[in-house]
Amino acid sequence: MKKMIIASTSTVHGSKYLAYLLPTLKKHFTGVKELLFIPYARPSGISYDEYTAIAKKAFSEINIDVKGIHEFENAKEAVNNASAIFTGGGNTFELVNQLYKNDVLTTLKEVIENGTPYLGTSAGSNICGVNMKNTNDMPIVYPPSFTTLGCINFNINAHYLDPIEGSTHMGETRETRIKEFHVFNETPVLGLREGSWLEVDNDAVFLRGKLTARLFKRNEQPIELISGDLLKF
Q1: CATH number at residue 15
Q2: Residue 223: CB partners within 8 Å, gap ≥ 6?
Q3: Catalytic residues
Q4: Which N-terminal stretch is annotated as signal sequence (predicted)?
């Protein structure tokens, strides 16, 4: 019985870390007293301890304590014993690399599918899909595989950006890159704009937030989904 929040970002413009999600998270993590934080994707320049402290401060607003997975001797046991799990953003390549290095990817998938409430933001959302091939991050390390959790049967492109009208930028748009992905891959991709998230209730996946999301399927025109829509494939 999966219970997941898959968010495009941890912080929207003009607000504090996770602030826009806290009302949702309070309900999502009902009864949870302590949460396991996975800081492996850590943003540049901060330690696991510093990153965990940021998450800890945010969750204190809803009376949930936070411990980092790096604080435990055995990462796999920490995942197995967690009441709830949050994987933060940063670099998806490094996140996936560390999940494999610490041998917790399969365990994480198992506990999520057995009902442990999960939150992912940015990189922590990218890993929820079939693979990490739609991340926007630079390949700063080389993980053993691009295969990720597969808790949803499509991929996430977090922080999805629309083309800016009138822009003279000559580089590829996100839409172009996703279409390039579909030359070689069948997996659908959801462009998830900042401030939007997915609510996963077992096999039902709903779009939440105020913005639309853009769904890409191979050999089909992209479509806009509105908040409240049920994603079906």
Answers
A1: 3.40.50.880
A2: 214, 215
A3: 122, 137, 159
A4: none
